[in-house]
Amino acid sequence: MYLSVLDSRQSLFCSSVSFEQxxxxxxxFKQLSHNEDTLRRDDLNTIPDLSCNPIRTQIIEAFxxxxxxxxxxxxxxxxxxxxxxxxxxSHFRPPALDMTEEQREIIxxxxxxxxxxxxxxxxxxxxxxxxxxxxxxELLSRSGxxxxxxxxxxxxxxxxxxxxxxxxHMEPDEFYExxxxxxxxxxxxxxxxxxxxxIRFLNMDTTNLCK
Length: 211
Description:
Shape: globular
Strand content: 5-15%
Low-confidence stretches: 1-9, 204-211
Number of helices: 11
Helix content: 40-55%
Strand order of the largest sheet: 1-2
């Protein structure tokens, strides 16, 4: 019954997960929600494995972003059901070994869309300099080795490099509005995101969901 709410695109993510694995996920969901039928942000904020993650806020928000579990969804919700939790978790699962190249490419694109959504916080279809800077600053400043201004300078330089990859030559007076999803695909074209994107909490590792 858990898969009944998924559209065909999302079902591709979850189709190779066994009922036993879904049962494990459901048990974890109940642990996190304190045996309630829905999960809230506060429930995820208490996870020790996420507490030291530099993009903890983005990961948690991803679970409540309608774009990640409803086709053409917009905005966020205050709580999610197990079915919605299952769809979001499926983005962290590596592709099954018996998938076709076409299926792997679909999953790759969906994983990258999920990552893009995490950083496109205002849902305007573009990761702006400000959004990108926020992520880079958070990643760098958490280490304690760099001050905020240094982190800001690195973020700005990184964004200019991204602009050169995405747009090629830019005129001095040309303004770079930000990274579109197509630019995002181009930037990460050589990164094997399918197997590297995973999450761990409550002693559950999503890399095991295809075994």
